[in-house]
Amino acid sequence: MNPIGIMVDSLRLGVRDGLKKAKELGADGVQIYAVSGEMDPANLSSGARKELKDYIASLGLEISALCGDLGGHGFQDATVNAEKIEKSKRILDLAVELGTKVVTTHIGVVPEQTNDPIYETMHRACEELGVYAKSLDAYFAIETGPEPAAHLKSFLDSLSTNGVSVNFDPANMVMVTGDDPVQGIITLKDYIVHTHVKDGVRLRQVDPREVYGSLGYKPMSHEQIAEDATSGLYYRELALGEGHVDFARYFQTLRDIGYKGYLTIEREVGEQPEKDIASAIAFIRKYQ
Fold first, then answer.
1. pTM to 2 decimals?
2. What is the pLDDT along the chain (288 residues), one digit of tens a residue?
3. At what angle do helices 149-157 and 117-135 cross, to 10 degrees?
4. To pair with 67 at 20 to 30 A between CA atoms, which of 4, 89, 92, 124?
């Protein structure tokens, strides 16, 4: 049985109350945003880190991953990459201190052509991040969705280590690229280190750059993604089992490739997140 996680921020309760609620709901672990506010590495002293780790352990939880998504244009803009890479490294340091080896992130949409200057900029950034992660026996995990799985695999294959790997989100693939998540698991099987459990439906075709941001397009905004997932023109995030992710095949294929890691529930929309997440836990357990 894969452990079940909850994205604490999906509960909209703050970190400490969210941790307690995750335990009440029966989660095994949690994923936490560590980009700003109280979880920004710059705001957590060594003592505060130890206290937080001990508190999470006292609840009988563990951290499945930290979310280190810095938004904007990902790692496409060479003029800001030095700062973003440095902050990403500090988030990974925090993750390792708190007992997890995974930091999930969006890197921006990978261009199709390898000689595209944006591709080359992203490649340099990911190579540096991957080498650093590997030195800590850890991973930066790119979230699926902005590009088809086959193209993401070719990008990952071109890096010198698997320190940059994959956080597999089936709903993003269904909602934006129209890619098949089950085939995506098979394609990316050597890189999957963390997963999200989320469902959705694609309403009409959309350029992924309009959703996830790209140089020349608006920067990525989680708030805008959530708004579009609620009432936008192109896709909807739905409760598990109500969208187009074939979860019977999805979970079976994860088992087939030997994935032992977390199934972490992310809920970016809806007015009753606690109820939705409780239902999601029950939904996942039907397949275990």
1. 0.96
2. 899 999 999 999 999 999 999 999 999 999 999 999 999 999 999 999 999 999 999 999 999 999 999 989 999 999 999 999 999 999 999 999 999 999 999 999 999 999 999 999 999 999 999 999 999 999 999 999 999 999 999 999 999 999 999 999 999 999 999 999 999 999 999 999 999 999 999 999 999 999 998 888 988 888 888 888 888 889 999 999 999 999 999 999 999 999 999 999 999 888 899 999 999 999 999 998
3. 70
4. 124
Backbone angles phi, psi at 200, to 5 degrees: -175, 180
Q: For 243, list phi and psi in degrees, rounded to 5.
A: -105, -155
User: Whole-angstrom Cα distance, residue 139 to residue 162?
Assistant: 8
Whole-angstrom CA distances from 102 to 39, 51, 142, 205, 216 are 16, 20, 10, 32, 30
Helices and strands in the chain, H and E counts: 11, 10
Helix or strand (DSSP H, E) at 150: helix 149-157
Contact criterion met (CB below 8 Å) for 167 and 142: yes
DSSP assigned state of 175: I
Distances (CA, A) of 189 to 4, 228, 230, 250, 258: 19, 30, 31, 12, 9
d(CA 90, CA 136): 12
User: What phi and psi values does residue 267 have, to the nearest 5 degrees?
Assistant: -130, 105
d(CA 176, CA 209): 10
For tokens 């009409």, the residue is 204
